[in-house]
Each structure stands twice: as structure tokens, then as C-alpha cells.
Amino acid sequence: MTTRLEAAMGAAALCVLASGCGGSGQSLAMSPPAPATPVAPLPAKVNDTSVELVAPPAAPALAVATRAEPIAIRYDQGRALYEVQFGTYGWSAVIDPPDPHDPAIYGPNRYFQVAGVPSAWIALGAHHRSSNAETNYTYSNIATWSAEGIGGGPWGNMVAFGVPTSAGDVPISGTGAFEGLVRGIADVPNGGWGDTATTPLDGQVKLAFDFGAGTLAGGMRLASACDCTTNFDLGTIAFASTAFARGATTFSGTFATGASGTNAFAGQFTGPGARELIASWALPFVLNGTSHQATGAWIAKRGD
């Protein structure tokens, strides 16, 4: 049975569609529906297979800063590829892995293998196409690498490298404030990812240069960098004695720590106008009453 409400609603609908309903007798025009807005297709997932250790064009010979296993890095412009040399291996090409270990979808490729070297890999910590300002570097990079028969332990070897600043291209007036990334290894036994004799570290570094006066000040912050059973934060360790001459492309120094052990850092500027820099470092420290040693590398860029 049709209710009064349903009958009234039906009559109202017919009144709208009919030519009148006690009105002017004119029909109501029905507007055509608006065309649907086209939906752009999702971009295809792209596996970045490029091998770029620094922004092109790379220098034939890259400066290297490391306290770990020695490594040399160069760019062969004729063949448009990077090569590395370490241990007893000759110069070998850095290549994109044949397997999709790190697809790097929507991002730059940061994981590589080394042609002809068993179990060799290189993992970048920065990239000139990185969307993260903290890891976007043009002339420098920091990486972890390892290979069969090469030391470095389960966490690999830390190395910083870059395009060296030419002599005479370092500012000789004004100041420069640099901030950057620190990576390292400490001889602190740990578990969580399997028992290891060492612990990976990361942190930040700040350097303040007075180019006119030839002085350097700064500090490095360090903390453990794994989901391990022993986690620690060493805080910020200030630079102690430093060596930097007006117009020099290199610098060095020590850390303000009372612990005994190897205590030093040494680095150099990278890129035109000394826009970035690389360095290696060694820091002794005390944790829970026990003396330890840490080593690593850093990269930094000028922010002023």
C-alpha cells in the first residue's frame, strides 16, 4: 500500500519533470552532468640503476678519508664509470646489483656491488639527488663498504670521499659554518642483531672556520646506531687542538677527551670554493668504566 508520504513525494517528482504544476507552463531544462575530471595515472615504479657516487661530472681521482681498510676511488671519464681499489684487488668497476636488492623506487640508487670481487658491496649515506636536505651532497659522500677477505667486521668499513678543492680556491677572508653526518664503529660488544664485537655509530658534526684568521673550532656528537642490547650516547665532544692555515685545503685536530687511545681527526675541503668537506676521525672514550676506541668518517657542507 502506498503511504501518503510516498504519494506526495511521487507527485512532487512528477511535477518537476512535467511541463507545469500550476506555474508558467514552461518545462524545466535539465543540465547535462559535468564531465568527470580525468585522473592522472600513477607514475610507473622506476628502479634507478644509475651509479653516481657524487654529482656529475666527477673528478678523475676522488679524495678519500678513512681510518678503516685503505680504499682508492676514481672516475673513468672515457668509460663513464667509477672504479675502486682495495686489498689485493686491482681497479674494479662499481656496478648496479643484478638483483633487486635495493630497488630505490622514487629515489636515487645508493647500493652497489664491485665487478669481479666476491661479496663486495658499497652503500652510500648521501646522494646529490636526495630529497632530504641532510643527506643531499654535491661534491662529497660517506659510505660503508665490505668485501670478502677484507677486514671491517660485520658492520663494514666507513669512508668519506669527494672532489678535492683546488689549491687557491679556499676563501681567505670571512667565516664558514659547516654541519654534517658522522658514521663510525666502536669496539663495544653488542647483541640484538647477532652477537658482535663492535657497535655502529652515527651522529652530527659542526665546524666553524675563520678563513681570514686561519682558525677552526667545533665538535662531534656520537651515539650508537643499532637496535642492540647496549645503547649509548656519548654526547658532543668538542674539538681540542686544531690546525688550519689561511688558504689551506686541509685541516686536522684532536678531541677534548680525557680517555687514552688514538685521538685525532684529519680532513680536507671538497668542491669549488670549499663548499663541502670530508674527514676521518679516531676517538677514545670511557663507557661504564671501561675504555673503548671508536673510528669513522664524516662529511659536512657549508650552511652560511
Structural key phrases:
1 helix; 16 strands; 304 residues; 8-stranded antiparallel beta barrel; mainly beta; globular
What does this structure look like?
The chain has 304 residues and is mainly beta. The chain is built from 1 helix and 16 strands. It has an 8-stranded antiparallel beta sheet, with no helix packed on it. An 8-stranded antiparallel β-barrel has the order 9-10-11-12-13-14-15-16. It is globular, with a radius of gyration of 30 Å. The protein starts with a helix and ends with a strand.
Taking all Cα atoms into account, the compactness measure Rg is: 30 Å
Biggest sheet overview? 8 strands, antiparallel
Low-confidence stretches: 1-30
Order of helices and strands: HEEEEEEEEEEEEEEEE
Number of strands: 16
Please tally the helical runs, counting DSSP H or I stretches of 4 or more residues. 1
| Approximate helicity band | under 10%
State the end-to-end CA separation: 82 Å
Secondary-structure-derived class: mainly beta
Query: What kind of assembly state do the chains in view correspond to?
Result: single chain
Task: Give me the side-by-side strand order of the main sheet.
Answer: 1-8-7-6-5-4-3-2
Kindly give the count of domains.
1
What is the typical, i.e. mean, pLDDT?
Answer: 85
